């Protein structure tokens, strides 16, 4: 939280409950000292301080205020902005001319889903809980972004329910969103040709839209299956024949070397499975499936 302007006892209590839950299930390793350090700081409340957000309140006072409510598994710290740190152009930072003219800036504009460690019921992606209790992906974000794209609020519903929803809500993974942010930053800072950057970002918007449609038509699919169904659909739509150039996957950035015939067969199989698995969702959203999504791409951040 910036400069400690918000103090909420419920936030401290929520962190305590979450940290206690994790600590109770933690399996000690052979490194006792590392175990001790981990268990002491499972939950961390960080109060940042920098010259761009100076307010009347003292960040250190807020740190002390939170410490009185935190248990033995949570800590509160003050974080000071370093000179060579990259500044995210979010919120009021966009209005600051000194920041805009700095070379050490980037944009964090693309939301992403949470992911689990393969074969384990452990959340792999960093989660951020805002001062109002809103749960978002771990990257910094403005209040406007948090209100527009969030997984839920820890003050009003269990974190478990929020995480379950967050595994499905967004169609991009953390890595795919990271590639989008890199391109977006390159375009905004003039490090990439504007026309080339526009085409790349529109391609991402197209994939984002296609996956959103697939989520509605095939709600039973895993993220991996939705990604493949999307690429198959685009492979059929965007390539006239087998001699046409391959379409490109967004992470890793490489060609989707699948024949149109293979994509057509897999898509037909998927439609048959949809009719057997969830016919109501399939027929209810059939018009969107058949519509040419290339003409109506959703903008990932249309007002970032």
Essential attributes:
3-stranded antiparallel sheet; 304 residues; mainly alpha; 45% helix
What would a concise description of this structure say?
It contains twelve helices and nine strands. It is mostly helical and 304 residues long.
Task: Explain the overall architecture.
The chain is mainly α. Among the domains are: about 1-85, no CATH class; about 175-295, no CATH class. It is built from twelve helices and nine strands. It has helices spanning about 10-25, 30-40, 60-65, 95-100, 145-150, 160-165, 175-190, 195-215, 225-240, 260-275, 280-285, 285-290; strands spanning about 45-50, 75-80, 85-90, 105, 125-130, 135, 150-155, 250, 255. The protein has a three-stranded antiparallel sheet with strand order 5-6-7, with helices on one face. A two-stranded parallel ribbon has the order 1-2. A two-stranded parallel sheet has the order 3-4. α7 runs antiparallel to α8 (about 195-215), α8 packs across α9 (about 225-240) and α9 (about 225-240) crosses α10 (about 260-275). The chain is globular and about 65 Å long. The two termini are about 20 Å apart.
